[in-house]
Amino acid sequence: MKSELTNGTGISNKIALLLVEGARVPVRKRNTDDWIEGEIVAKRPLENGKQEFYIHYIDYNKRLDEWVNDDQLDINKIKLPQTKNSRPVSPTAMLNKVNRKRKIEDTNGYSSSHSANSDTDDSPTIVPPIVPAGPPSTGSLSQNQNTYDGLTRIKNVQQIEMGKARMTPWYFSPYPQELCSLPVIYICEFCLKYLKSSNCLKRHKLKCKLYHPPGNEIYRKNNISVFEIDGRKNKNYAQNLCLLAKLFLDHKTLYYDTDPFLFYVMTEYDQFGLHMVGYFSKEKESSEDYNVACILTLPCHQKKGYGRLLIEFSYLLSQVEGKLGSPEKPLSDLGLLSYRSYWSNAVLEALIQYLDSPTESPPSLTILELCDRLCMKKEDVISTLQHLNLIHYYKGQYIICLSNEIIDQHRKSMFRRKVRIDEKYLQWQPKDWSKRGKW
């Protein structure tokens, strides 16, 4: 009886043949006993002859994707990838098909590279996968999204160090390939220049004269400041900011063409300078009146209320412009949670203030009036009212019902908020970007 050979990974050659890109298999997550169905996105050989598999967990966000070893795979439950207009193929049927193909080739006089060893191995040779060389060095990936789709699904940066924080990226970002092979990329926290070592960063700090983001400081209260940065006038900084943001934003496709955008960077002040905690960008001219294109709070500064401050500041700018604002859709999962929380608090605060003010009896407030008070689009206000279950149909008209319990919960949550955006400290005038001379 023949013994089935393995390919050095502990997995037989026949099973390894089935572990192709697109196949689905139960995966045991690291440091847990949970088995979750995952899709094989890529695989790569290791120095010891084994293989690693890059897994995307089905119905989970891509930031949880990771490289796993073969011993974390349940190879008895492999689901092969399906093509359009094809039936699901079982692993056994696939192996039988491969064996039939080999018999036909041998009958016709053809031989494969391993036919000389057919006494000991009757399974096809496993060819090592071709590992992509890396991201393109020029241009925007959004222009060739189909070409680089497989590449951009894989995280290419292991860690970054920025100031006192070391962060693990969530997604792909097109940093230079020579840096992506390093265990850590070092980033200057003031100019956002990326460097390959801590020694390079120390030498850079001796020459870097920035202690805050470039551009105009348009807001300052206590230790919180906001800088407005023109993507055309400060192109290098804007491009570096986009590269940094792409590590934590999945849907971001802007890297190099920053001219049509403004960037608003929020900083926290200490004795060493003004350190970036987050930012949002917006188009200079938006046909849909979007007040945010991308928004990010750095992971090392999350859970501190900065995301809500950024959203609140974006609506303050819309208020000064005299427009109704809304973020670009679709929102990421974390972005939706942040905006849903802000919208809920803003709508409840406006309703409670209206109830507390002397008005006619019974009080009457339309959706459009509520939009004008909050500078929010009508669809965002309506979706928030529905999310809070405040809007009801009664006697032929829609009414808003506020219970004492909801009011008490809102007042408790607002009491915990210590930091708010104060419009008195904003020094900013909107520009008419339709005139090209303003660019």
Descriptive overview:
By secondary structure, this protein is α+β, with helices and mostly antiparallel strands. It is built from eleven helices and 17 strands. A hairpin with a 2-residue loop joins strand 16 and strand 17 (about 395-400). The radius of gyration is 28 Å and the shape is globular.
Précis, in short:
Helix content is 28%, strand content 20%. The chain has helices at residues 13-18, 91-107, 149-152, 177-180, 198-207, 235-246, 306-321, 333-356, 367-374, 378-387, 404-416; strands at residues 24-28, 35-45, 51-57, 66-69, 160-162, 165-167, 185-187, 194-195, 216-221, 224-230, 261-270, 273-283, 290-292, 294-297, 326-327, 391-394, 397-400. α8 (333-356) crosses α10.
Poorly predicted runs of 5 or more residues: 1-8, 101-148
- Number-wise, the strands total 17
pLDDT average, as an integer?
81
Overall body shape:
globular
- Could you tell me the radius of gyration in angstroms? 28 Å
Strand order in the sheet with the most strands: 9-10-11-12-14
Class per helix and strand makeup: alpha+beta
Strand portion, in percent?
15-25%
Q: SSE order in H/E notation? A: HEEEEHHEEHEEHEEHEEEEHEHHHEEH
Distance between the termini: 78 Å
What is the makeup of the main sheet? 5 strands, antiparallel
Count of helices? 11
Instruction: State the helicity in percent bands.
Output: 25-40%
